[in-house]
């Protein structure tokens, strides 16, 4: 556990005996899952400033484990009443937080890479497919087959649960709308774009920003509002059921954060911070409090550049017009000069002839 402001370690647990692949927490519970297939849990201690006694020295019965998975834990999530765990044993298990019993087992045909719950549904990825489940009954509501070329590694969901984001081995990010019906839920692809040259391993969403971490060592930061405007322009006010997506109407990523080593495995966003970690063994924290101000300044600079460009264009047009009138005046002057010479010659000849006559 780290202090994000100071960058100092607050506490660390004893070795758990395996590689930890997933962590999730709220104000009541902290869970961690590893390659040995267990979920290690810490209950919050209200008297502690940082809630969780990772060292296990304050109180007893605040630390326990859940065993039922037969493979490494790859993903964990929490809501108010449940714990969700995904594993390479090709299952997603739903646990009741009060009784600590497994209430549902959602079976897949391949390794489970990621999951994200919302209300009474949970979305999971297995292989290249994406599954939408009813949590209470374990009913499969919908399947997005071959969502990516290769494995679908990452998931994120909007705060309302209406929009789903997927990231995969092909470096692409897809945006779907989940339309809930009385009997079934339909999933419609709204947008797609490819901000990365490597696999997308992690996604995080906090309105209005979607951030992705990739094996190419970069973070992509996308403004969700611009994606919504683009999708509405493309598909109308209500999302169509046509799956043909015009990528030219999709806004590119608004920010690309560099300076990492390769293989960024995890990213999170919240409290005006972006936190990411990867293969280099370093956790980086980005201050995100001024992002909107930076965006407004960038927009103002773009407006100033556009205005200067238009002003230069108008000046160029005016100069060209003045140059055209100058040429016309010079031609007229030349014509007048020629006519004047002819008249003078004619007058001189007339005077000579009159002298001759005299």
UniProtKB/TrEMBL annotation:
WD repeats lie at residues 66-105. Transmembrane segments: none annotated. Keywords: WD repeat. This is Uncharacterized protein. It comes from Gossypium mustelinum.
